[in-house]
Amino acid sequence: MLNKFKSSLSKxxxxxxxxxxxxxxxxxxxxxxxxxxxSINEYNNFIDNIYLKKTLNEIINNLEPRYKKYNHKIKSGxxxxxxxxxxxxxxxxxxxxxxxxxxxxxxxxxxxxxxIQIILDKTNNKIKEFVFQISNTQKIYxxxxx
Length: 146
Fold this sequence. Notes:
- This protein is of the alpha+beta class.
- It folds into two domains: 2-59; 67-143, Nuclear Transport Factor 2, Chain: A.
- 52% of the residues lie in helices and 18% in strands.
- The protein contains five helices and four strands.
- The protein has helices at residues 2-11, 13-47, 50-61, 80-86, 91-102, and strands spanning 67-73, 115-121, 126-133, 139-143.
- The chain has a four-stranded antiparallel beta sheet with strand order 1-2-3-4, with helices on one face.
């Protein structure tokens, strides 16, 4: 009887090894899926944290852009200096802009239909871009390289 068992065992060793390998694989896959499910639950609990949501919303809602774009339509009685002073632009920058524009346009004669577009860097109140409309088809673009 022992000899029969040994002979049947030696004949079926490959089948037994395959069964063992399948059982081992099923156990490993089950444990991996369990760990994955635990990780997903921890992640979801972290994301669903109400304090985290409130903090992130508060931070995001209070962010201000670095650059602010102003579109100014010239009104009667306004001067070029007065317009730029309203946007807290320094005298040095005003003089530099006036010097650049005076080569092409008389800035003492402003029309009420003209528009000025200013892009300001809010960190240091410096002009990044300045667009001066001469007519409906012509504009002067001034920009700083950073």
